[in-house]
Every structure is written in structure tokens, then in C-alpha cells.
Amino acid sequence: MFYRLKTDFRLSIITLLGASAILGITPFAAYRFLQGNLLAAIVDVVILAGIVGSVAFAWVTGRTKYSGLFLAVMTSSSAVVVGAVTGEPGLFWLFPCLVTSFFLASPRLAILINLGAISAMMAQTEIFRSLVQMWSFAAGAVVVSACAYVFAFRNESQRERLEHLATIDPLTGVRNRRSMDQELAWAIANADRSGGVYSIALLDIDHFKQINDRYGHGVGDSVLVEMVALIQQHTRRTDRLFRYGGEEFVLLFPGTGDEGLKTVLNNLQTVLRRYLTHPGGTVTVSFGVAQLIAGEDVDKWLGRADAALYRAKESGRDRIIYAQSDWAHTEKAASQAECSLT
Hints:
This protein is of the alpha+beta class. It contains 13 helices and seven strands. It has helices at about 1-5, 10-35, 40-60, 65-85, 90-105, 105-125, 130-165, 175-195, 210-215, 215-235, 260-275, 300-315, 330-335; strands spanning about 200-205, 240-245, 250-255, 275-280, 280, 285-290, 320. Strands 2-3-1-6-7 form a five-stranded mixed β-sheet, sandwiched between helices. It has a two-stranded antiparallel ribbon with strand order 4-5. Helix 12 (about 300-315) links the parallel strand 6 (about 285-290) and strand 7. Helix 4 (about 65-85) runs parallel beside helix 6. The longest helix has about 35 residues, at about 130-165. It is elongated, with a radius of gyration of 28 Å. Mean pLDDT is about 85; it is low at about 325-340.
């Protein structure tokens, strides 16, 4: 749980704001029930149910974008309803909603939500004691929204820039090892939750050190960039490529296993053999492949793929070796999956 909160910014915001709203609204709901103000109490309970539901949806599905948008719309509209039910005291509930909407939704959508909420509140003219109070409220609400927009916009752009620097390999433009660890952990969590199939292929360029030593690191870098381009052209958008270190890369295949995985990798190996070159000739790649086993962690999963890659290197390179395991491949089938240039 704490891992997801640390790595998913929007989920952490939804959880924090949801908890704050629950702690802030629950006492008022109880107080209004005790007072006999059933209408206001029921409104508070409905708001609490919506908040709990949206937070639970974000945790279960991981679709924090939709959950955050729903939470922003619901809290702002709820503040308007509270204003209609309780009168002037309800005005104060809108101001925290004006700020939090920028943390839950994109800045542009948050502006639209806030303007709609402010207009809906002003339409209830009976809430205000005078026109001066109404326009003072409107001016204050707009200023709060404008300041929150500037802060949210700058925060979003800086966060995206930092995430890019922290998760993208500067040479090849693919995700780095830190990002890989996060995505593999997410894949394992999703597989445990939904029973999805995930496989990884650990790739290593054969004799890469010789390329660097003979032709220079500039040529070696060009080979890496070209290999990445070829892989991305011949894999699905849902497949993920990561630079594991040096000339090693990891391919994550969601929803792919057994025969489908063999077909994809055999095709990819053929493409690399045909098109990946350097000044001295063709470049080949060795593969170590492992399908996720239930209850396995990231280290064990990668360890099996690494062991398979080692066997590919030891048995002549330019091969695809599948990890020995109990996942729908017997030892005989695993040996038949070995592919060589000859």
C-alpha cells in the first residue's frame, strides 16, 4: 500500500484529500443528525459515500484520472448543495473545493469545474445578504481559483519534467531501470489481483564490447538507438521496453504467454538479424525469457530471465532461451523453444 502511495502521485492526493474530507464532514453529519436536521445530515452522508466510493475505485482499478475528476466534480457540486441546504454557512465549504479540484483534475478541467460551482452558488441569491456580499464572494472565489491554477500548472509541469528525468534513459529515450522496477511490481500486483498473464524478455547485444573497442562508443551508441527503434516498430504499444543497464534491455509483454510469446520473439529476432548492423557487419541479440509465476516477486522473475539469458550466451549466442519453470512448459517443451541461427 505504501509503495503505491509513494509512486503514484495522483493516488496519494486522492487518498489524502479523501481522508481529510471524511474526517472533516463526519462530525457535521453526526451533529446534524443529533439536531434533527435530517436533510442536511443525509446530504453529508451522500457526500461521504461518494468520497469513499471514488477513493476505493482509485485503489481497486488504478484509474486515478477518472476517480480524481469524479471526486472534483462531486465535492464542488456537493458544496453547492450544502449552500442551498444550510444557507450562508455553506459558502465556506466551496473554498477548499476550489483549491483541491486542481489536485484532482487537470488545470483546464479544474477551471471549468470551479467556474461552474461559483456560478451555481451565485444563482442561489437567497443565500447572500446583499449584492455586495455576493460579488465579494465571487471575486474571492475567482482569485482563489486563479492562484490555485497558477500553482497547479507550474507544479504539474515541474513534476512531469522531474519524472521524465528520473525515469527515461537519455540515450535511447526508453524507460530506465527505476521505471522498470515500478512497472514490474505493478504487473505482479495486477496479476495477483486479476490473474493476468505477463512475460519478460531480457535482451543482450552479442559481442557489444568488441563493437565499442573496435569502432568506438559513438558507433556502439548508434547500435543501441537503432535496436530500440527496431524493437519499438515491431512490438505493440502496450509492450514496454526498458534499458536494464549497458547493452541489456528488458521487454515486458502484458497479456502474452506461451505460443503467442514465441511468435513475437521469433519475429523480433528475425527483424534484428536482418536490419541491425554496424560497420563490421550484422549485430545479433540473445534473449532470456520468463513468464510470471504466481507468488513470484520482481527479483525472482528477473533472476529466471537472467539465468535463461546466460544459457543463451553460453550455448552460442543469437538464441532465445525460455526459463525452466512450471508455467505451462514442460522440460521437453522448453528445450524445443530454443532458437538458434543455425
